[in-house]
Write a structure and sequence with these properties.
Blueprint: E1 2-7, H1 10-16, H2 20-27, E2 32-37, E3 51-53, E4 61-63, H3 65-81, E5 88-98, H4 101-107, E6 112-117, H5 125-131, E7 134-137, H6 147-158, E8 191-192, E9 195-196, H7 206-224, H8 226-235
Parallel strand pairs: 1-2, 1-6, 5-6, 5-7
Antiparallel strand pairs: 3-4, 8-9
Helix pairs in contact: 3-5, 4-6, 7-8
Bound molecules: adenine (ADE).
Adenine is lined by residues 92-94, 137-139, 141-143, 146, 149.
Length: 248
């Protein structure tokens, strides 16, 4: 999976995604993260300007269409030359659909994803109309730029790409994979600050452990995320009580 990020701050992307699991995944070739500086495509040779005032007035500057478009065309050419048939272009914006695990799983199937990170008061609408396929937000709050949201999405998508996680970092049983939050977990020592690890987890009975974990996951989801619990219960309705047969 190749991530291409159009940004005014490539160092943020490179530093943020080169440590830990993302760094390892890049080194091993499961993903590539290519941060491209939009400023390098400015037609203003002298000052490399990429923003200007907004028509109609209003506070702040707007990112201009031309540098973003030229930057994108360069990326598009590289993707096409590499043999990829299609790619999606994601504009990270608080005006987009809110990102979730389902979207991450869907996007993880793509071979190339292009992210556009906005800054200042936004981006000239015309270039968005021309290049963007998806408008995505990471939540109902406003950040100073699109780099952090792009990194959040890239991390969540990349860890679903086969090979990125080791077996012991498995992505399938964790929170949000099936609407349920993850059950509580414990490591050594068996007792800490007077708190004991639940007996059942020491029993070695895998069936009982699985049942306990499911029960705790359901309980935790109901308490902390009633909205998710509602979705889970719709897909997993409790079995109706068995009717007693009347004797004839
Ligand atoms: N840019 C600024 N705030 C954002 C958000 N919440 N999601 C995506 N991009 C953003």
């Amino acid at each position: 999976m190749n991530f291409h990020v159009m940004t005014l701050f490539p160092e943020m992307i490179n530093e943020g995604l080169s440590a830990s699991i993302m760094g390892r995944a890049s080194e091993r070739g499961y993903i590539s993260v290519n941060a491209i500086n939009i400023r390098d495509y400015s037609a203003d040779i002298k000052h490399h300007k990429v923003d200007d005032y907004t028509y109609g007035g209003g506070a702040g500057m707007l990112m201009q269409a031309q540098p973003i478009y030229d930057c994108y065309k360069d990326i598009e050419k590289k993707i096409i030359d590499s043999g990829a048939k299609k790619h999606r272009v994601i504009y990270v914006t608080p005006q987009g659909s809110v990102f979730n695990q389902k979207m991450a799983a869907e996007l993880a199937k793509e071979s190339d994803l292009v992210f556009l990170c906005g800054h200042y008061e936004g981006v000239d609408e015309r270039v968005l109309e021309e290049i963007v396929t998806d408008y995505v937000s990471i939540g109902d709050y406003v950040l100073t730029g699109g780099e952090l949201p792009a990194m959040v999405m890239i991390d969540a998508i990349a860890r679903l790409v086969p090979g990125v996680l080791n077996n012991d970092e498995s992505a399938s049983t964790e929170s949000h994979s099936n609407y349920l939050l993850e059950y509580p977990q414990y490591s050594r020592p068996e007792e800490w600050m007077g708190k004991k690890v639940p007996e059942i987890l020491l029993s070695g009975d895998h069936k009982k452990v699985d049942e306990w974990r499911l029960e705790k996951a359901i309980e935790r989801t109901r308490q902390r995320r009633p909205d998710l619990y509602e979705k889970w219960i719709l897909e997993n309705p409790p079995a109706p009580p068995k009717k007693k047969r009347k004797k004839s």
